[in-house]
Design a protein that fits this description.
single chain; 272 residues; mainly alpha; globular
Length: 272
């Protein structure tokens, strides 16, 4: 099977060329995840509903939390928190699986013609499926409690672009590293948890002292989460420069991760 090399556009060529296989494997993985359970795929809807209900109760009723210092309702806090978790879980779910991704698919490694580089894309597709369900639930809850979201919410796919590229770059890197360093799984699990609390999910950036904000902006999720809230809740379109730089940086990260994976994949069969 002819490859696409490891150039900056190769990852897009790979995704497009194998799009049917990626979707087929993603669907099979989703089916396998819920096969054998009584409710089946219904759990994909129930889980985020239960999560939203718990967050709404805890932060709206117990803590009486509000977003920032400008007021806002308790329900608004739950909506903001839930939207942030949906997006972060795209990254978190993919990263937590990454170190064991190749080891879970040893049979594919033994097949010379199988494009191993698409497995992180399959993982991302599954995470996006879960995120899609989460956003439908978010929309319904938003309509019931706050009315129609602002028109800028339709631009959310713009934010998903750097999120997907960042996720792919890191997943390719850790999927490869996990083959050679088995302890990397524990490191990634802790790292994802730390990254979650260093992301503006449970608090706005305005709550962070000025001297620490520059450090938090090194986190690629910071810009993504802040821009998503602007689009979904505040009706603001992100700065084209800010979005462009975030997307360009994410593309560079994805390219490096892809190139690393393609270079190191030759040694997978010798290790597993």
């Amino acid at each position: 099977m002819a490859g696409f090399g490891a150039g900056p556009f190769a990852l897009f060529q790979t995704a497009w060329h194998h799009r049917s296989l990626i979707l087929r494997l993603a669907r099979r993985e989703i089916d396998a995840r819920y096969r054998g359970s009584v409710l089946g795929i219904v759990w994909a809807v129930l889980n985020p509903i239960l999560m939203l209900a718990v967050y709404t109760f805890v932060f709206s009723v117990v803590f009486q939390a509000r977003w920032g210092t400008t007021g806002g309702s308790n329900t608004e806090f739950a909506l903001l928190l839930f939207s942030g978790l949906i997006l972060f879980n795209v990254l978190g779910e993919s990263l937590n699986r990454a170190p064991g991704l190749m080891l879970e698919n040893v049979s594919y490694i033994k097949k010379v013609v199988f494009p191993l580089e698409i497995l992180p894309l399959v993982s991302l597709a599954v995470a996006l499926f879960n995120a899609g369900i989460g956003f439908v639930i978010l929309l319904v809850f938003h309509l019931a409690t706050a009315g129609l979201p602002p028109p800028t919410a339709l631009l959310l796919p713009l934010v998903l672009a750097p999120l997907c590229l960042t996720t792919l770059g890191l997943t390719w890197f850790f999927a490869s590293a996990g083959v050679f360093l088995r302890d990397i799984r524990q490191v990634v699990t802790v790292g994802v948890t730390v990254l979650m609390f260093l992301s503006p999910i449970f608090y706005p950036m305005t709550a962070i002292p000025e001297r620490f904000r520059a450090i938090l902006h090194l986190n690629p999720m910071t810009v993504i989460l802040e821009q998503s809230k602007d689009l979904l809740f505040w009706g603001r379109v992100p700065s084209p420069l800010s979005w462009g730089l975030a997307t360009l940086a994410a593309w560079g990260l994805a390219w490096l991760g892809y190139a690393w994976f393609m270079k190191t994949r030759r040694g997978f069969a010798d290790v597993v």
